[in-house]
Amino acid sequence: MLIYGLLSLLGLVVIIHLIWFMIFKRTFTPVLMYHRVTGDTKKDDVRFIIHKGKRLDLDSMKVSPTNFDAQMAYLKKKGYQTLDLKKDFHKPKTVYITFDDGYEDNYLFAFNSLKKYGLKATFFITSELAIKGLFMPIDSNDKRVENRLLTTNQIREMSEANMQIGSHTLTHPWLTHEGVNIEDEIIKSKRELEEIIGKEVTTFAYPGGLYNDEVLEIVSKHYDVAVTTSLGESFRKKDETPYTIERETISSTDSLLMFKLKVWGVMKFIRKHPLIGLLKKVIKWLLRK
Question: Total structural domains in the chain?
């Protein structure tokens, strides 16, 4: 009975903290991370890769055009504003929409929905691959037209339509690996994109969300803001560096309810709250009994 009493107490504490989190949202401004908006799927023999030591379903990175449109419609209906990413990005009733890699389907599908609802997004472009008409490394065995990257004309058009263009390096290497010319990847990509859009590029996204102190130092000298994926198991403070901004991944399996939970911060709370982690361990222990 003692164990169940403690479990109930833990649950009560978590609920209290969730209410506090939802009301004040002192540690959370949603920065959403997309990769692709398309109904295309890969064949099984090229669909799965090993990514940062884990098996990754590449189709999980795709949101259907119908689902994306519904997500944008929800943001518009609820009165969320979408802004360019800047150092002081914590704003009330704001959602930041970001895209990594720079696939052409971002232009063909996502761009249309964003314009339809009067929303903005930040597109992180792998500049050299886009300029040369090459494919992303993960598509080296699947060079279909469906996997093409944005053209320079499409990038320019999106920028002229008030979309923010950011850098995602030249060729999408892991910047923490040996042998990578990190200065070229970080600085030259910025210059290439600025030549295309005729504007300063102030935002950067780390490929794979990976960085180290050397990478951070270079990025901080040339950009105002940089984004990663989700970091660690604890909440980060509002006043921490603008060069490691966390994002919430939006995937192919997310229902509209799941999307709302991510926008509200509920999923981050569940993922990072220490009491939730303890509760999971207790439940696993009970199930083994």
Answer: 2
